[in-house]
Design brief:
The chain has one domain. It has two helices and no strands. The mean pLDDT is 85.
Amino acid sequence: METKHIKLSHVEAIFAKKELLHSELDILNVLRKFKNYKLLRKKETATRNKIKTTLTSLRAKASVIQSSFPAEEAKKVKRTKPHERKRESQGHQGIQNELEEIRSKLAQLE
């Protein structure tokens, strides 16, 4: 394999060396940031696991405390659904409208 050389001026050579050094700096900065990211992810995972175990133990304690309370019968309350209330109010207005129409017809006949 043949080696080919390109003649560069002094200014071009210095510029190329500067660009190479800037590229190396950028690569090292990216590596540093990546290592920092990995470290932060490990800390985050450890913190999440700690929170998860703490919540699990708190739920267990809460269920034990709740089971120690006396049982109380819950009153069953029938609640109307929002769309049923809306129909009832629309039906009421419909009746009101019909009453007004009948009254106006009676007034015209008199």
